[in-house]
Design goal:
Blueprint lengths: L9 H24 L6 H8 L3 H5 L5 H25 L6 H18 L1 H9 L14 H22 L15 H10 L5 H22 L10 H15 L11
Helix pairs in contact: 1-2, 1-6, 4-5, 4-6, 4-7, 5-7, 5-9, 5-10, 7-9, 9-10
Length: about 240
């Protein structure tokens, strides 16, 4: 019987499994020794392989780091998008809350990945042209901006104290926003960046252990912050679920 051309060969499956193991060990090294611990030689030692064998999967350490950042960031964005999309489009507050919860839950489940995306720079790392995770970054930006765009009819009157113009922002960001949200004014873009800061801030403190000695329930602090954020946009937060 002829093998289905779509069925991976045993050699191809082993290659995929080895590449996955390399990435798993790279994250383990990051967790144990920080970003500087990610080297192809260290990974080869952990796997009982030669360094030359590792080079058959990733030509350089930077290639491996770029793949890690891209895949991890995409995993985060997909988790946030999936949570948001389980809430009806007309429920702007519920969709924002769902995105925020998914962001924290993913981050706590993947602290090494969070650190690689947002925190610790890898010494000497040179990102490829366009960035290591351009697709994920684009989707994250569009997702957050979309949440603000949905809230903008109620939020606009609350942003009257400080108005922004397009030159206040990076041209690439301006191009993205104007292409996907043509009716959104620059002040709403500033609001989206502020929302990003509030979603990210407490999670970052929690991941790096800065809340550990301050509260026994950082999740409650985060929920309160997100409900306050939603109210600041002129929306009504969904009812709190029992803890």
């Amino acid at each position: 019987m002829a093998m289905d051309e779509r069925t991976p060969t045993r050699r191809a499956r082993l290659r995929v499994e080895t590449a996955r193991e390399i990435k798993t060990i790279a994250l383990k090294l990051l967790a144990e020794g920080g970003p500087g611990a990610i080297t192809l030689r260290a990974i080869a030692r952990e796997m009982g392989m030669t360094a030359n064998a590792i080079y058959g999967y990733y030509a350089t350490r930077d290639d491996l780091v770029s793949v890690l950042i891209s895949e991890i960031y995409l995993s985060l964005v997909e988790a946030a998008e999936a949570a948001r999309d389980r809430v009806p489009v007309e429920d702007a507050a519920g969709r924002m809350l769902a995105w925020a919860r998914a962001f924290r839950e993913w981050s706590l489940a993947n602290p090494e990945g969070f650190r690689l995306i947002y925190g610790d720079p890898v010494p000497g790392y040179q990102a490829p042209v366009g960035g290591a995770a351009s697709e994920a970054g684009h989707r994250a930006c569009a997702g957050l901006t979309g949440l603000v765009a949905a809230a903008w009819p109620s939020a606009e009157a609350l942003q009257s104290e400080d108005r922004y113009d397009w030159p206040d922002f990076d041209p690439t960001l301006v191009g993205l926003v104007r292409a996907e949200f043509p009716d959104l004014p620059p002040t709403a873009v500033a609001l989206a960046l502020r929302v990003w800061g509030r979603l990210h801030g407490l999670v970052s403190l929690e991941i790096y252990g800065h809340l550990r000695g301050q509260t026994t329930d950082p999740g409650r602090i985060y929920r309160t912050e997100i409900h306050d954020l939603i109210r600041s946009l002129g929306l009504t937060p969904p009812p709190r679920t029992p803890r």
